[in-house]
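3.2 Worked example (two chains)
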Amino acid sequence: MTNTLSEARRAELDTVAARADAAAAPYAATAPGERAAALVAVAGTLAAHAAELVALGMAETGLTEARLNGELTRTAVQLRLFADVVRDGGYLDARIDAADGDFVLGARPDVRRVLTALGPVVNFAASNFPFAFSVAGGDTAAALAAGCPVILKGHSGHPRLGARTAELVAAALDGAGMPDGTFQFILGQQEGVAILQDPRVRAGSFTGSIPAGRLLADIAAARPAPIPFFGELGSLNPVFVTPAAIAERGAAIAAGYVASVAGSAGQLCTKPGFVFVPAGHGLAAALSDAAESVAPHRLLNPRIAAGFGARRAEIFQTPGVSVLAEGELNEDQDGQGWATVTIVSVSAETLRAQRERLLEEAFGPLSILVEYPADADLAGLVAELFEGNLTATVHIGAGEDSAELRELVRVLSGHAGRVLFDGWPTGVAVTPAMQHGGPWPATTNDSSTSVGTAAISRFLRGVAYQGTPQALLPAPLQDANPWNVPQSFAPAGQSRSWGSAS
């Protein structure tokens, strides 16, 4: 990408990076209680301005009031959850190995290790989650909790909402006494690239499309000093339904499927893109009826509407595709699109034959039902057809178990970050154990998550201190433990008993 920023704009970005860099050390050194209080202050400020922010979101994205209210609540909950993580201090993984003259490999010095903040992080806001994965969303919350200043690159799909949310976040952090430059907001594609390339930025995070995410990941990797880049990109989220599940609750499965595809007009990274059902499933009428009851929903912006229209047309024109629920896409004079649910059906053999045309995400309310024969090797289909995904779902009958089912679950766990049963993947719980990631192309780093308390680890690195005087140790490693964080202690003499536990 050619960057044609003016000298004045480059000077502005240099100031942004300099402020973040200056804030890095003092912000990382803030005591847990102070940093946690700042996160809670941000959550409270956003909640207090909910009506204003939701109105801006509705105007710019077309998402419903109920959806945006729920998303804003989720955003505040994320911030409060990370506040508790910071107060607990366990995320620092403080380890102390006492000096040991009798160490089995020779005298061991005093060694202490702790996780410390990476430094300034640039976070690229998402189009489809203007709160939860945007200005004050999960990446921002995790980076701030880790002690990293954040430079937020706002999304062009909701610029006014982004700027106003950023004002509130910055004011709340300032009011809580955090260093100047702890949080800053920029707009513009070229601006985002330039700040990602700045040597003072130490990590990047992104939620969006595969092409944009790959471009940014490559930029981060190509820097003279490469930096980690955590992108959440595309996902097809396959669902597998057994004959026993169809027999027990076929109608409920059909209704849940349509509702999951219809939610937020299908503009969710966890939308079920492919649902595998046994041939002769008998759900066609139920699916069609459920889809017809869904009211039109505006897509986020004209670019997404155009992309969805082109993808939908390509699927319709693919040989072997049968339409179960045609749905509609209507565009106004400004290019804004209103869509209803589209569901098409193919055989497993057609999916194999037409994989080049069909195995690509349709970002909008469209999903593909795949009919498999009685003797199908579902685990083999996963291995043959799918790359990495955020989620994989299995619907089974009560008490159902078999070697084939266990193999399917084993294979799915290698292809997805979250494997769920008898539910639908839309809706990602904000809870400590959540994993929202997966192998490429779901993410650029399949060992990380962008939801759940483990998300903080992306913005930390380990540092060990050997033979260091107490006064020069960071607070979490001092014997006095002024931050009162959990410390893992390996006493002298322990090494001679390693491996003897039964």
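3.2.1 Second chain
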Amino acid sequence: MIKRIIPTSGEELPVIGLGTWKSFDVSIDKYPELKNVLKELHIGGARLINSSPMYGKSEQVIGDITAGIDAVDNFFYATKVWTTGLQEGVMQMETSMAKMKRKKMDLIQIHNLIDWKTHLPQLRRWKEEGKIRYIGITHYTDAYHEELERIMRAEKPDFVQFNYSIMARNAERRLLDAAASLGIDTLINRPFGEGSLFAKVRNKPLPKWASEYNMKNWSTYFLKYIIANPAVTCVIPATANPQYAHDNVMAATGNLPDMSVKKKMVDYLHDL
């Protein structure tokens, strides 16, 4: 799998990870299938699992399932703080770490910038103490890209997470370049437009030239467009389906499209 370097540490991170919004907010009878999702990710070389207290049971489900996997410590665990107030944030983060069964969290992010001025100093303290390895900020709408960039330039977090897809390309205007110039890693949410991209291409064929870039299905088509941008560190599509997890992982293999091919990809979608 293609990997990107985390500038603040030199650590390599595979470009495909896993989101858990809705997909991991499930009852225990769904655990076997989700365990197979994580196995597909591990076999394919993916590491990052992204969650949040906002995602219902997902943190607990991640902790329960990974505890029974031999590769439990090979994953890169990321969650968020999603509340207001210092003590409330500390309590929430401690609860998240307990649910995910992590004595040390790889990454904690401030979810949608909620009370970020309060939480960021606390995250820095925890990083200095060794309780977490990296800190970050997130949002999921174009309207907050300017605010994310402003905070990035002022505060220099390790990670920034935001929305970006082949049909939602506002991040290409400034945000991706800003992250690259500042040495800040990027996590990409909503890579499939919450399913709207698949609705657009339902029963539509891939272009014939897609096979030259190992685009064997629409998910690899959409993901390859994103990871072809060198400023993208990791994309986190959510899924509860092992086959979809396999398809997502395959997007990080083979050739990546250059700028001319990316334009063809966009134009092809517009013409459907």
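3.3 Remarks
The first strand starts at residue 3 and ends at 5.
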